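$ ./design --mode recover --in tokens.txt
reading tokens...
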């Protein structure tokens, strides 16, 4: 029953009974009784209910006056609710723990496969590719360098490399120590929880650590081609440890960790054109200058000992590159498929371009040229593989074939460096071409982000300067303590015998 109606009726009843007529003594007495206090409280409640009734929809108000039977209670009316403001939490900025149900099994399966493919690029891919191009007396030493780097960098990565590269730090130039010895990374079967990286939240962190480890392995391994046949094994080991810590980890951080300087500046590198190829290319060129030319360089032919090894190695690199580029999508999705497609297109285009140039200038295409052209195309498409379409892949592949041929021939002679296996001519030049052309051909529909040619140039040349200077400093230190180069007699005998006491028969 509505209290306002009862109150009105009570007032009218009081008037008719003359309870409080003017001058009547009973009125004054009644005003001082508890009944009057109750009356006042009811009046206050009536006012509150009246204000609530005023907020009801028109459909809730009875049309027959004050009849209580026609009053609709608020509980019977569907009052539109004001939607609550949704608070979106900020994205994670560091690795964190999740339940098993948050892991995407399809993404995880693809990333496990991609990790194996990228590791295959170094052993046996790069080891065979380089071993086939050196002289027979240096085959084993060249292959062993790649194999040793796999082992060295694995331990460096687990101890400190991953933490420096892929956790946020106090500056945008290097990571922190939160994952020192992979501390904090876990898999808890009983609790159904595990950690994921804030960069790849749909796969276990352990898989992401392994995937990025394979990139950290192949990058310094690429450098070995520049100083092939003349560097001390002990000096190579120390150099690679220091280079991984002071060059690779910082460059990977600024480019791929979301808080990194390049990443925050909008510089694009989908799979390592700058981090891997420009970085390794300029380091290789500095190594070639610091170690000097091989004995007999320019006076005697340095013919490859077995181009079949080189072709098999190039083929393994090509296949492994699908994990390199398509795996960098960190998901089993359409973007990974597009990255795989453009990788194939660019590699084929660059190989044909290189062979066509050879045909024009030398009257014949070569196996070494075909393999070199394919690798050049793979290098150049790497930074752009998650951002470009078919047209961009064709253009980048053609440019890579042309400019890398020039880099391995004319530019090499201009620089005057004995870059033994054309690390700068292919990886350095190809990485520069690909990184800059990413700014030209990047499609926002594919990559979801705008590209700037200016920023791509800034990122590329900043990496060239930083990597080149720090590599030079590391080599100076190693040379002072150990010495970089083998003796003339050891070089003449070959590194297989002089450094490892074994040879290929």
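writing sequence...
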């Amino acid at each position: 029953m509505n209290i306002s109606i009862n109150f009105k009726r009570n007032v009218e009843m009081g008037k008719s009974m003359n309870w409080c007529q003017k001058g009547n003594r009973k009125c004054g007495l009644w005003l001082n009784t508890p009944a009057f206090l109750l009356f006042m409280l009811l009046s206050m409640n009536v006012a509150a209910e009246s204000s609530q009734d005023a907020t009801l929809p028109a459909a809730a108000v009875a049309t027959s006056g004050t009849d209580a039977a026609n009053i609709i209670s608020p509980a019977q009316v569907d009052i539109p609710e004001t939607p609550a403001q949704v608070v979106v939490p900020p994205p994670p900025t560091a690795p964190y723990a999740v339940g098993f149900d948050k892991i995407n099994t399809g993404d995880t399966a693809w990333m496990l496969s991609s990790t194996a493919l990228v590791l295959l690029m170094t052993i046996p891919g790069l080891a065979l590719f380089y071993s086939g191009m050196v002289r027979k007396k240096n085959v084993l030493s060249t292959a062993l360098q790649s194999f040793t780097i796999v082992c060295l960098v694995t331990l460096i990565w687990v101890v400190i490399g991953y933490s420096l590269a892929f956790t946020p730090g106090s500056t945008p130039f290097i990571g922190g120590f939160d994952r020192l010895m992979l501390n904090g990374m876990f898999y808890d079967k009983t609790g159904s929880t595990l950690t994921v990286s804030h960069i790849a939240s749909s796969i276990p962190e352990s898989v992401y650590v392994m995937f990025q480890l394979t990139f950290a392995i192949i990058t310094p391994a690429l450098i070995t081609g520049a100083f092939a046949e003349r560097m001390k094994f002990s000096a190579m080991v120390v150099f690679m440890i220091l280079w991984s810590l002071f060059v690779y980890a910082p460059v990977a951080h600024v480019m791929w960790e979301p808080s990194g300087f390049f990443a925050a500046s909008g510089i694009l590198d989908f799979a390592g054109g700058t981090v891997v190829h420009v970085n390794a290319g300029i380091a290789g060129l500095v190594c070639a200058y610091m170690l000097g030319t091989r004995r007999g360089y320019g006076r005697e032919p340095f013919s490859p000992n077995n181009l079949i090894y080189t072709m098999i190695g190039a083929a393994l690199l090509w296949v492994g590159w699908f994990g390199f580029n398509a795996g960098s999508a960190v998901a089993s999705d359409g973007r990974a498929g597009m990255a795989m497609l453009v990788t194939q297109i660019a590699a084929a285009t660059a190989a044909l371009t290189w062979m066509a140039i050879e045909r024009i200038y030398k009257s014949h295409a070569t196996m070494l040229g075909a393999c070199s052209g394919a690798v050049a195309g793979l290098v150049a498409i790497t930074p752009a593989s998650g951002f470009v379409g078919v047209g961009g892949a064709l253009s980048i592949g053609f440019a890579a074939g042309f400019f890398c041929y020039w880099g391995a021939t004319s530019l090499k002679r201009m620089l005057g460096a004995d870059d033994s296996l054309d690390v700068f001519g292919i990886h350095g030049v190809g990485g520069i071409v690909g990184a800059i052309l990413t700014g030209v051909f990047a499609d926002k529909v594919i990559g979801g982000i705008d590209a700037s040619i200016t920023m791509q140039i800034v990122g590329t040349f900043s990496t060239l300067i930083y990597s080149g200077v720090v590599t030079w400093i590391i080599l100076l230190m190693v040379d002072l303590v150990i010495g970089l180069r083998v003796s003339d007699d050891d070089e003449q005998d070959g590194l297989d015998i002089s450094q490892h006491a074994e040879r290929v028969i």
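exit 0
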